[in-house]
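FORM 12-B: Structure-to-Sequence Request
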């Protein structure tokens, strides 16, 4: 695989940030949602975000995007 450009790396970072922010907000809303269907949809959305994050993490790991020494 080719090396990612700085712009691609920034986009990957922003994508991860957006997904984690969406999960955090959805988790905070779950306790105050009274509608059963809306609560179920929110829980499904959380699971979907988690799957996307795991996919991005797998892509990063499999393609050696970051060095283990760079993670703090």
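FORM 12-B RESPONSE
SEQUENCE OUT:
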């Amino acid at each position: 695989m080719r090396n990612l450009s700085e712009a691609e790396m920034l986009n990957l970072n922003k994508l991860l940030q957006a997904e984690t922010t969406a999960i955090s907000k959805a988790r905070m809303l779950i306790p105050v949602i009274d509608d059963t269907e809306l609560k179920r949809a929110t829980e499904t959305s959380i699971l979907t975000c988690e799957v996307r994050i795991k996919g991005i993490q797998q892509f990063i790991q499999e393609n050696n995007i970051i060095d283990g020494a760079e993670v703090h």
